[in-house]
Amino acid sequence: MNWFLIQEIGFYIFLALTIYYVFKKKYDNLMILYFYAMVFATCYKFAFTIWFPTKIVSMGMLVCILRSGTTRSSNVRRIAVRMTATFVIMLITSNLWGMTLSKEYAASFNSLSRMVNQSYTYISAFILLFYGRLLEPGFIKRLYPAYMLAIEICIVTAIIHFICLKAGIPFMPILRQNGTFNEGNEVVAQFGSSVVSRIYAFVGEPKNLGFLILPYVLISLMAYNNGFIRKNTRYHVGFLLAGTFALIQTYSSAALMNLAFAIPIVLLFFATKRTFLSNVLLVGIIIVGFSLVTIKLSGGVTSNDPNFIESFYGRTFGRAENELENDRGETLVFNAFKESDGLTPLIGWGVSQYTFHAPGQTIGNALIPLQSGLVLTLADFGACGILYLFFVGFTIWGLLWKSKQMRNYYSLSFAIAALSSFIGSLMFGMLTGCFFYLMLALYAYYDERDYNAQTQ
After folding, report:
1. Fewer Cβ in 10 A, N or C end of the chain?
2. Which residues 6+ apart lie within 8 Å of 435 measured at CB?
3. d(C-alpha 368, C-alpha 351), whole Å
4. Which stretches within 270-372 are classed as H helix?
5. Phi then psi dihedrals of residue 45, to 5 deg
6. How far apart are CA 14 and CA 54, in angstroms?
7. Tens digits of per-residue pLDDT, 240-293?
8. DSSP string for 53-83
């Protein structure tokens, strides 16, 4: 089967739908298309940069924003302007400084194109903060089922991928921009003394699948606990378990570590009479038990393994510790950054310029992406970037407590998703990874608050 042809057809479908929805001003449909752009991220195309479907849809969102004079949801707009203006100043300052610096490494690569490409990636994420003001009030409640359905379709494809692996049936391989794909259509990982197969569905990479499903699992957990939206309990619980199963089957150390950090925080906001400690113990026992059964199904735990906890730790925190000790790219970049001078410690090397200032960031004709959002932010924006991370983190945390006090469970659920994505971004992504969920949480909160104020 010509998977590359299918990939290209999928890309042009997203492009055509984006153009149609922009032309027809179907703003709701464009938001729903963004949901599915995350699910079918493998339908990308390379043209100067990698055009993932989300980039195409966000470009359409930018066009809609520029064409519209709508000023609804002024509270959200104020927060969005504050966050965006601060970031743009930081980005311009860092890039201008970066252009003045001499480049010691990776001379065969174009530093300016790297700067432009990554700067667009940053800016396109900020577009999402403004897009909600084009939609009618209450769009979060209206589009919530569409978001859940999109991720549930992703979970179904992930389960199909798992079944294909067990049955020996070929599944779509991971397609790379140089025209290659993973041999045998299989990706494996070490878990304990076993080698296990990993699933990635149509998202492109196991880690990306894990980070896409995790917010759904947390949102679904909050929805089930607080008893809103879902009327069919069996359906809800079924997909909650299936999503957790798929998340574990990615064997992504990044996603599993994020889950370990996110669950205790989520339990702080549970509406329950049980204490926080009892919540942690109960959910912890359920997750460990379910994880053990899930991993046994894939042959991830054998009689030679000391125990499940040690195997899990070795795959997640233990693996991260070993990689840091073995001069992983993030360590090399951080050590090089510590030796920098001038304005670099304050404002960074410029966006995506670490490749040219730290050794070992290329393999042949390929660039090695940083897998730590904290180090990437430090390299791109220096100490100012770290301060900005605190700014974003406090914004999300404040929204969480406000939503809990107001008992706005839509806002609370998406703020939980934003917080988990923020934690994941710090560890393994880039700082804008949480902005999609932050936008949804902000509009869910302020729309509801403004509506209540008008009706009183």
Report:
1. C
2. 125, 126, 128, 129
3. 15
4. 276-297, 308-315, 317-325, 329-338, 344-347
5. -140, 145
6. 9
7. 888 988 998 888 888 888 888 887 777 777 655 555 555 555 566 566 566 666
8. HHHHHHHHHHHHHHH------HHHHHHHHHH
The CA-CA-CA angle for residues 325, 319, 283, to 5°, reads 135
pTM: 0.85
Q: What are the tokens at 95? A: 């890039």
Tokens coding 246: 């798929």
Q: Which amino acid is at 248?
A: I
Taking CA 433 as the corner, what is the angle to CA 17 and CA 38, rounded to the nearest 5 degrees? 30
DSSP 8-state code for residue 132: G
3-state secondary structure of 351: coil
Question: What angle (nearest 5°) sits at the alpha carbon of residue 406, between those of residues 408 and 223?
Answer: 30
Calpha distance 358→355 (Å, rounded) = 6
Structural tokens at position 242: 């299936």
Place of tokens 């520029």: 66
